[in-house]
Amino acid sequence: MGLFASFRPECIQVGSSGRNKEEVLAEISRLAKKSKVLANVSEKQIFTSLQQRERVGTTGFGGGIAIPHCSLEDIEEFVVGLLIVPDGVDFESLDGKKTKTFFFIIGPRTQRNRHIQLLSAISKILKNPDVIQRFLEAFDEKSVRRIVEELFSLVDIGVTPGQQKGRCLFHVFVQKEEYFEDILQVFSAAVEGSIAVIETNAAGYYLHRLPLFAAYWSENQKGFCRLILAVVDRDLCNDVIRRIHTVVEDLENEPGVLISVQELYYSSGSLEF
Question: What pTM, to 2 d.p., does this model score?
Answer without folding.
Answer: 0.67
